Amino acid sequence: MENPEALRWINNIPSKQWTMAYSQGQRWGHMTTNVSESINAMLKGTRNLPIAALVQSTYYRLGVLYAERGQQYHTSLAFGRVYTDDCMNKIKCEVGKSNTHQVMQFDRNNYSFMVHETVNPREVRPIGHFEVNLQRKWCDCGKFQAIHIPCSHAIVACSYARQNYLVLIFDVYKVVNVFNIYKEEFPPIPNEGHWPTYEGETLYHNPQMRRIKKSRLNSTRIRTEMDVKEKVPRKCGLCRLIGHTRKHCPNVTASSSQLS
């Protein structure tokens, strides 16, 4: 182990808080990560603004986002859609994979199955066999527990038992539940002339933090300690020694005399 202190530090953090294997599905796995990354990408250009403009831009962006998404899922409800498009696209992909699986039933209640893969799943694992328990919504591949959508093994087990695999999808993927998130509205900000009088402290900006108008602004991600690189001393291009450059190399004369 290169850094025992780092190992002790990370072992003091409960595994269910930072690993997918021990999360027990309470953080909704990849879904949680995708949502946070989407919000981060939407507000990437905002974080370089002053505090007042940052708050204003965040408010406007979220107001427009909630209005658009609310209208989108309201239309989906009007057309009678039960699950979101992303969920159904994932189900369609898993159904295609399930057509190549073989199933063996292991109990008379149609709960436990052994599923064998016959075609390479094109995932980061070899062909294998997996236990599926429909009552516990469990599959050895781990995808069912991670994203809470039936994997191909669970789908073929449901087809073998003549059960509807759609009932295994968690309610969080239903259009009505997503619409309940985006149905909230952000009220427009009125003109400053209608604002109530503020009687608190007066804040002034720091002129030293004013942005330079010349050149183009580089918008990059926030740098952390992992971006810090150790400085390597520069070497001469001729003699490969440290302390001078190729232009002022003291060994140029010696090299020329050896060549002559």
The value of Rg in angstroms is 30 Å
Using the alpha-carbon principal axes, give the shape: flat
Count of helical stretches: 8
Average predicted local confidence, pLDDT: 82
Q: State the total count of DSSP E strands.
A: 4
Enumerate the strands of the largest sheet in spatial order, edge to edge or round the barrel.
1-2-3-4
Estimated share of beta-strand residues: 5-15%
Structural class: alpha+beta
- Biggest beta-sheet profile: 4 strands, antiparallel
Percent of residues in helices: 25-40%
Distance between the termini: 54 Å
Helices and strands, in order, run as HHHHEEEEHHHH
Uncertain regions spanning at least 5 consecutive residues: none
Q: Could you describe the 3D structure shown?
A:
By secondary structure, the protein is an alpha+beta fold. It has a domain of 88 residues. The protein has a 4-stranded antiparallel sheet with strand order 1-2-3-4. Strand 3 and strand 4 form a beta hairpin. It is flat and about 85 Å long. The relative contact order is 0.10.
